[in-house]
Design goal:
71% helix, rod-shaped
């Protein structure tokens, strides 16, 4: 008890008997027992309160994690729906297309007719 051995407790009891006397000693022992009971009850209450606070701290930590996750999702959504950024990306795409000043190679136009084509014969020379 409190790191006291039997001899220390015996010395404290002898000193208490000398100072209090045999008539006040029983009532003093009852008061000391009440004090220790109150301390024990208070320590139990403090322990329960700390456990509740630790639980509240865990819940608060979870809530902060959810809040961070929601903020990240909101930021991603804002980036995905940001019209300025989308238009900037579209202008970057337009920059890659050839401009009017660039030489164009026009495709050959073919006439569509229903006439038979005459095959040219090869001649050996």
């Amino acid at each position: 008890m409190f790191g006291l051995g039997f001899t220390e407790i015996l010395i404290i009891a002898v000193i208490a008997i000398l100072f209090l006397g045999p008539d006040k000693l029983p009532s003093a022992m009852v008061e000391v027992a009440k004090f220790f009971r109150t301390v024990k009850k208070t320590m139990s209450t403090v322990k329960d309160s700390l456990e509740q606070e630790m639980n509240v701290a865990d819940i608060k930590e979870e809530a902060l994690a959810y809040k961070k996750e929601l903020l990240n999702a909101k930021e991603s959504l804002n980036r995905a729906t940001d019209l300025k950024q989308i238009s900037a990306n579209l202008t970057n795409l337009n920059d890659d297309t050839p401009t009017d000043n660039a030489p164009k190679s026009a495709p050959k136009e073919e006439k569509v007719t229903f006439e038979k084509k005459i095959k040219e014969e090869k001649t050996d020379v």
